[in-house]
Amino acid sequence: MTSMMLKEALSAADCVEQQLANDAERYAELGRKLRSTPFNSALTVARGSSDHACNYIAYLIMSRLGRVVASLPMSLVTLHKSPLITRDTLTIAVSQSGQSPDVVEPIRYFRDGGATTVALVNDADSPLAHAAEWAMPLRAGKEQSVAATKSFITSLVAGARLVAHWQNDPELLDGLAALPDALRKACEVDWSPAIEVLAPARNIMVVGRGISFPVALEASLKFKETSALQAEAFSGAEIKHGPMALIEEGYPLLIFATRGPTQAGLLALAEEMRGRGARVLLAAPEDVATRDLTLPVAATPDLDPIVAIQAFYVMAAKLSAARGLDPDHPRHLNKVTKTH
Description:
By secondary structure, this protein is α/β, with parallel strands linked by helices. The protein is built from 14 helices and ten strands.
């Protein structure tokens, strides 16, 4: 029986198509607002998969627009009641449900203090959507599986749309328009070699760097969530600062080597880890001869993580079933998590 997680992952291209068909003028208006507003700081507010999406959005903002972006420790607002300076701040929240108090309260706090607040949220009638000045719907439709898939992909797309309109970049906008077809192709990529390696595994290290690191974070979470597989995500630059002590003969290592300036270092890392006995699963584009898994690519490298996680989700849903688990009902987890 096909899991809801797999069905929803496979529907991501249609959801992205729906998002791109709507709210174009709203994004253009937001882009004009961002270009005309001087920001002293930029913050993201999110938990779980949504926080991984924020990592991707932050990377795009920093690399393309030169604004430093930090992840807000929400307890500073919700628990410590810290007197944070909010004016001249851009605050971006990402959420599937828009229900968690520790995401909603900071957005209210920053908006009341004069910040520009943006919510990329799937539920357009949620408390978060009402709290933010700019509520941008993900348009992923209702997500029933506990494991977020289509809502995560649409979060990445919404973040990239925000950046594209802020930067007013026709190339990135064109790349976004081509994403639905790229996502459909990504669903067809064969990652079965990963299932053969990971079905009996007990742990795994997931590696990325730069723009691929958010994908490593998300993949690590999904391994834990849907396959009860102890997984840790690391930047390729951090492996030699301690995590390499975990490497032993046959230790699984999934490396996301997307296109861009970090790719060469990740390919070299894969070869080194093979030499140390690790069971490396190198995910790289088809022009990389040493790859174990083929990474699909988008129209521009900055969008590659979106199609990379699409290919991963299809494999992850099948891996969960191969391990005798139900990815739609992970142990101890609920679809909506409310923390303070």
